[in-house]
Design brief:
It is built from 31 helices and 25 strands. It folds into 4 domains: 187 residues, Dna Ligase, domain 1 (2-Layer Sandwich), CATH 3.30.1490.20; 125 residues, ATP-grasp fold, B domain (D-amino Acid Aminotransferase, Chain A, domain 1, 2-Layer Sandwich); 277 residues, no CATH class; 106 residues, Glucose Oxidase, domain 1. The N terminus is likely disordered. α17 packs antiparallel against α26 and α19 crosses α25. The two termini are 55 Å apart. By secondary structure, the chain is α+β, with helices and mostly antiparallel strands.
């Protein structure tokens, strides 16, 4: 690091009134004040500090000496009354201005300037004895002056001293109970850095106290716009390894710069540079490293002001202890995978029910692996907090997930495949390695887990079947009983009984996921190790065309219906008309010519009515609720002209070609060929089981939806709620307590009103896929990641999930609806769920900001033969609606040609 100019020897010796500091040895706080002493220490430690010298506190003592004793007594205890403080300040400042700087002090100021800063514009900065202390920083309480020349130096120094008696400085002392000694002031006269950019670096989060991120804020020009909060600023958060974990690039608007040829500063409007980052990534990392070095030397967290000089060097302008609350427990939230099941906002009822579902079915998972009894009960909080909700969005609490997995001996080896399949970035803080002693002591349990793995493997078909049969049994029983005949208490009893059984048996889902994730990872590893092809692409192609995939059956059913409509001239004319969906549905029911088609549609609703967009949310309106939603879906399919035979033929062709490549690559390796075939077969079976379970979960959600909707009707009829759908803004426990007389809040209407308001406000927020907090999560403010807009022809990259190349217009979809008219466009969305299959069939491709290669959307994309790329960051913001997009579902690339917009 370059040596500080201020640490070099100077020709002039210290005077009576001024000190020309040479380094850390000159750091006398009582003489130089907090800022001056701090700058001496910085210079002595070798950090680059702009040249400076100090007017000592002797000038302050001389200036205050003539003040009357009563005035000094009042200034010692300024109080908290704003009006009285303002009057006191006016009297004090007038007295100091009348006295003025001693002539000898002024002469030494000018001599110090000539010796150290001759010809330079300077900053005149306050340096009170109590300033920059750990307990009370006095940040922003005193005045500083920028771009000062030799002629104005004396006047500005006196103004700076007088600012100790400004209204805000007096009130600050009064509120904090600080005496006059804390305001005893020196003044720093420092070279002004005409900075390219400037700002502040915090080595810990100043709100939460979290210490594993350096937070940097910056603006173009001088740093005054950052520290006084008068301009928008860029923000970065940098991890301990130098990784930029978050960046927010603001439209900065204005910059503060020195007045050319005069005194002071001017705010200038920024042009195109307003949208550009104030710092490069390398500069951000350099700043973070400097701040960490400083904190390590000081042994405490630091608030560092810095400036980027025109020569590219970083100058440190100030460093003071950062006052932070005690660091709280870190929590890492991630919805890279979960967003597929619960996209966008989720109501309190859905969250509370599904939180309980995760708790019960993952307790069932660890129970199946042999972890039970005291060990599970001792970690009950883990299961209660597998999911969280931030600004109305559901997230996985990764900290709890890792703690759950690490209850099982030997699971460390399974974590990489789990993380990759779920789309998580590994988090060392969340998944600490076990010590050798722990691993040795767990050897017997590891053997037990290995034995249980084998048993679970063979029991999976039975567990999956038991879960599906239990859901169907409860559905049949409810149909036979008649939900309309159940009172509120009976409905609540039904909910208690069915969720108790179904949530436990739902453990078939994560168990199936676990084995599928490991097989999926092993398949890719073998492809790479044996050099059979590009692992991700070839693996995706091998997994196409699996017959009997239940999650695709609703789509095949609809495509078959569209083929039937297309072959019937009268039906085709009806569907191609402009008649509203409700009118088309009514005509189908009334006209005897369409009786068989109407029966086929009713059969589809009966079989697949719960398969819809956002099907796992209880507040969702499904086809079972509004069967007229089938009409726009079928219109899209009719327009697309696809057939089941063509879809299956396309998928099978991709699969056959991939299998030929594998056979050729393993032609002389019979043992490898057998092993590969076994893993491939099991992986295909696992994916099929996974999608079957997902369809079952959708049907379970449909069952619970019916029960809760009926309960809402009972609450509305009893006058407890205004509307039956208000029930979705209460939690499952609140509803049960209200039914049974255990509610601690009787005014449920006001509670619903509060939550509806929160829900509406949350709709405006944009949250990143990963959020990291420390301490009380409710006190954290989730921040969105801002990404710069791409230029023409930019290539966006993600994860290719379904092979194929297509060029078509982009259709940005922020609010999916079955009524969305599609004609071969490429869908571009923030996230998707299995319900999107109704839209995917009519599209030529799919781009999603979220998702991974094992997500349901990826699997269905492969099965439908729709080229699909997921994990494309900020796709909905970087791709223009209507622009021509070239998508490569094998390579995972998306190229936008804005010039080709229709």
């Amino acid at each position: 690091m370059p040596a500080s100019p201020s640490s070099e020897a100077t020709a002039s010796a210290p005077g009576v009134w001024t000190v020309l500091p040479r380094g850390a040895g000159d750091a006398d706080r009582d003489l130089l004040g907090g800022k001056g002493a701090g700058l001496c220490v910085l210079a002595g430690e070798g950090f680059s500090v702009p040249r400076f010298f100090c007017l000592t506190t002797r000038a302050w003592d001389e200036l205050l000496a003539p003040l009357p004793a009563p005035l000094r007594d009042e200034l010692e205890r300024p109080g908290r009354d704003p009006a009285a403080v303002a009057a006191l300040g006016r009297r004090a400042r007038a007295a100091l201005a009348a006295t003025g700087l001693p002539a000898a002090a002024l002469a030494e100021l000018e001599a110090g300037y000539d010796a150290v800063l001759a010809g330079s514009a300077v900053s005149v900065r306050s340096s009170a004895v109590g300033e920059d202390a750990a307990a009370h920083s006095f940040a922003g309480q005193f005045d500083s002056y920028l771009n000062v020349g030799r002629e104005q130096l004396g006047a500005r120094v006196l103004d700076c001293l007088c600012s100790a008696f400004s209204d805000r400085a007096l009130l600050y002392r009064g509120v904090n109970g600080l005496g006059l000694a804390a305001a005893r002031m020196a003044v720093v006269v420092q070279e002004l850095v005409d900075s390219v950019a400037a700002g502040v670096a915090f080595t810990a989060d100043p709100v939460s106290g979290r210490r594993d991120r350096v937070t940097i804020t910056a603006n173009l020009g001088l740093g005054i716009s950052v520290v006084d909060g008068t301009a928008a600023t860029d923000l970065w958060r940098v991890g301990a390894d130098g990784t930029i974990a978050e960046r927010q690039i603001a439209a900065k608007g204005v910059a503060v710069r020195p007045v050319g040829g005069g005194e002071g500063t001017v705010r200038t409007e920024l042009g195109e540079e307003a949208a550009l980052p104030a710092l490069s990534d390398d500069q951000v990392r350099e700043l973070a490293s400097l701040a960490r070095q400083l904190a390590a030397r000081r042994g405490e967290q630091q608030d560092v002001e810095w400036a980027l000089a025109p020569d590219g060097g970083v100058r440190l302008l100030q460093a003071r202890p950062l006052t932070t609350p005690p660091a709280g427990r870190p929590t890492v939230f991630d919805n890279s995978n979960l967003v597929e099941s619960y996209p966008g906002l989720t109501t309190p009822l859905t969250f509370s029910v599904m939180r309980r579902a995760y708790r019960d079915n993952f307790r069932g998972l660890v129970h199946a692996f042999g972890a039970r009894g005291e060990r599970v009960e001792r970690n009950a909080d883990v299961y209660d907090n597998l999911v969280g909700i931030l600004a109305g969005r559901m997230y996985y609490d990764l900290s709890s997930w890792y703690r759950m997995f690490l209850q099982l001996p030997g699971m460390e080896r399974a974590l990489p495949a789990f993380e990759k399949a779920m789309g998580f970035r590994p988090d060392a803080a969340s998944s600490p390695p076990r010590s050798l002693r722990d691993r040795v002591s767990w050897l017997p349990l590891q053997a037990l887990v290995a034995a249980r793995l084998v048993a679970i493997w063979f029991s999976l078909p039975r567990r999956t079947r038991a879960y599906r049969e239990a859901v169907e049994r409860w559905r049949r029983e409810l149909d036979a009983t008649g939900v309309e005949r159940l009172c509120a208490h009976e409905l609540q009893d039904w909910l208690d009984r069915c969720t108790r059984e179904l949530f436990w048996k739902m453990s078939a889902a994560p168990l199936s996921d676990f084995f599928t994730q490991q097989l999926y990872g092993a398949l890719g590893a073998l492809i790479g190790r044996w050099e059979l092809g590009e692992p991700d692409a070839l693996r995706n192609e091998l997994l196409c065309g699996e017959a009997g995939m239940e999650s695709v059956e609703p789509v095949h059913s609809l495509v078959s219906l569209s083929e039937r409509i297309g072959a019937d001239p009268a039906a085709r004319t009806l569907f191609e008309s402009d008649a509203p969906a409700a009118a088309v549905w009514a005509r189908l029911q009334e006209d005897s010519r369409f009786a068989m088609l109407a029966d086929a549609l009713a059969l589809h609703v009966s079989s697949y009515g719960d398969r819809s967009l956002e099907e796992l949310k209880l507040e969702t309106t499904t086809l079972a609720d509004e069967p007229t939603g089938l009409i726009p879906i079928l219109r899209n399919y009719l327009r697309g002209g696809k057939s089941v035979a063509a879809m299956e033929s396309h998928e099978r062709a991709i699969r056959d070609a991939a299998e030929r490549r594998v056979r050729e690559g393993l032609r002389r390796r019979p043992l490898r060929r057998l092993l590969f075939a076994a893993i491939l077969r099991r992986c295909r079976g696992g994916l099929k089981a996974r999608e079957s379970i997902r369809l079952t979960r959708g049907r379970m959600a449909g069952l619970l939806r019916r029960l809760y909707r009926a309960l809402g009707e009972r609450f509305a009829a009893a006058g407890v709620l205004d509307r039956d759908d208000d029930v979705f803004f209460l939690t499952d426990a609140e509803l049960a307590d209200a039914v049974r007389g255990a509610s601690v809040t009787n005014d449920l209407r006001r509670l619903v009103e509060l939550r509806r308001g929160e829900y509406e406000r949350a709709a405006e927020a944009q949250l990143p896929a990963r959020i990291e907090t420390a301490g009380i999560v409710a006190a954290a403010e989730p921040r969105a990641v801002t990404v710069a807009v791409s230029g023409d022809g930019a290539c966006l990259t993600g994860t290719g999930c379904s092979p194929g190349r297509v060029s078509a217009r982009a259709k940005i979809v922020t609010e999916p609806s079955p009524e969305l008219a599609l004609d071969g466009e490429i869908l571009v969305a923030q996230t998707t769920d299995p319900g999107w299959v109704f839209l995917m069939v009519a599209a030529s491709g799919l781009v999603s900001e979220q998702g991974n290669m094992l997500s349901h959307t990826a699997i269905i994309g492969r099965e439908l033969g729709v080229p699909t790329v997921v994990g494309v960051e900020a796709a909905t913001r970087l791709i223009e609606d209507g622009a021509t997009v070239e998508l490569d579902g094998r390579a995972g690339t998306v190229v936008q040609r804005r010039g080709g917009a229709a």
